[in-house]
UniProtKB/TrEMBL annotation:
This is Galactokinase. One of its GO terms (cellular component) is cytosol. The keyword Nucleotide-binding applies. GO terms for molecular function: ATP binding; galactokinase activity. PROSITE patterns: GALACTOKINASE, GHMP_KINASES_ATP. Signal peptide: none annotated. It comes from Corynebacterium vitaeruminis DSM 20294.
């Protein structure tokens, strides 16, 4: 029997965060803020190459109860979705590049980067209690949910008012810097934008070249469809070098071209062959990596067109093509991800996020949700993989105050 991921309502998770805060620090928080994880529907491994992605914010939230303290330190307590409790105390003046490069860095690094860039007002210590329904290591951006809930909380506590739409780019930057500079994960910015800009009922077409995030209707129910997430429970981490190795090839190639942006390079795959030859790199491998990035952005632009034309058949075909490219050209899938993709029937199915573990999503006929989950579970168990866990994802709102 497929196991379903349990999710609290925004009120319930806010209540739990406030209770954890009171237990840990003995007084009431100033407020509770929440930010969602995200699911990337199509367009993976293109954000750091000025490409296009179509994610949406999940309804699943990370909630942060917070209040300033007079200790010149951040005190943190966190309960993860699996019930694991973690604590940390970080002096305010100890936060900076690669410090602290663990889970607490996502939180305190966001405050550090936001105050450095003056988006978030005065530096001060905070007491922070975190609870989350965004599964960890599942390709659903639990780290962005942590950064972005902290970002809106610290913004409001330090500046005295909630962020407006105009403040969001500064908060996106602070969250990205926390991840890149403090934790040391060289990720690209898709996740933080999704978590801060999410809108109920909408997917986001993000063009990283233009710097635009455009909400578009994503009404699966009207098509009798649902988006099923299968978390393979083969955990991944993006700070372990594999992600950086993929990004490194694209960054290195781009830096050798006269164009400022990967998107401006004409016939990038052919140029990549020439560059790899001159550099003594594996020519076929570099070609496949660059070719994926070019094709995936083109595919995602086509997918945005398919959404606009209400052509979900074309959209589902593009999802399948995307998975095959991430598997064969970018080589970021795992046997567990490929098993779920095959068992779901491929059409309308793909891995989501950074890969090397995590989740497969499938646009399924709403009547076939249970059946499809069962097939994915059966295939995993038959191969000795962990039992996946499941979620039906709907587009929810972005980071905000919960209570
Ligand atoms: C991770 C990163 C993102 C993006 C995706 C792949 O989620 O954090 O920046 O690169 O992988 O699309």
């Amino acid at each position: 029997m497929p196991r379903w991921i349990h999710t609290r309502t925004p009120d319930a998770i806010a209540h739990d965060a406030a209770r954890l805060f009171k237990e840990a620090y003995g007084y009431e928080p100033k407020g509770v803020w929440g930010a969602p994880g995200r699911v990337n529907v199509i367009g993976d491994h293109v954000d750091y190459a000025d490409g296009v992605s179509i994610p949406f914010a999940l309804e699943q939230l990370t909630a942060v109860a917070m209040a300033p303290n007079d200790k010149n330190a951040y005190r943190l307590v966190s309960v993860a979705p699996d019930g694991k409790k973690m604590e940390a105390t970080v002096p305010v003046d100890q936060v900076g590049p690669l410090s602290p490069a663990d889970w607490s860095g996502y939180v305190v690094g966001t405050i550090w980067a936001g105050t450095e860039s003056k988006v978030i007002g005065a530096t001060q210590g905070y007491d922070i209690a975190i609870v989350s329904d965004v599964p960890l290591g599942s390709g659903l951006s639990s780290s962005a949910a942590l950064e972005c809930s902290t970002a809106v909380a610290a913004f409001e506590l330090a500046n005295g008012h909630a962020p407006t739409h105009a403040d969001l780019p500064g908060l996106v930057d602070a969250a990205i810097r926390a991840e890149n500079e403090v934790v040391g994960a060289s990720t690209g910015g898709l996740d933080q934008r999704s978590s801060l800009y999410g809108e109920h009922g909408k997917a986001l077409v993000i063009d990283f070249r233009k710097g635009t995030t455009t909400p578009v209707p994503f009404d699966l129910e009207a098509h009798g469809l649902a988006l099923l997430i299968a978390d393979t429970n083969a955990p991944h981490t993006l700070s372990d070098g594999q992600y950086a190795s993929r990004r490194g090839v694209i960054d290195a190639f781009t830096s050798y071209q006269p164009e400022d942006s990967f998107r401006d390079i004409d016939d990038a795959p052919a140029k990549a062959r020439a560059w790899a030859t001159a550099q003594g790199r594996d020519v076929d491998e570099v070609f496949r990596r660059v070719n994926h990035v070019v094709e995936e952005t083109n595919r995602t632009i086509a997918a945005a067109g398919a959404l606009e034309a209400d052509d979900m058949d074309a959209f589902r075909q593009l999802m399948q093509d995307s998975h095959e490219s991430l598997r064969d050209q970018y080589e970021v899938t795992t046997p567990e991800l490929n098993s779920a993709f095959e068992a779901a029937g491929r059409y309308g199915s793909r891995m989501t996020g950074g890969g090397f573990g995590g989740s497969v999503i499938t646009l399924v006929d709403a009547k076939a949700i249970e059946d499809t989950a069962q097939k994915i579970e059966d295939a995993a168990l038959a191969q000795g993989f962990p039992a996946p866990t499941f979620l039906v994802a709907r587009p929810g709102d972005g980071a905000r105050r919960l209570s």
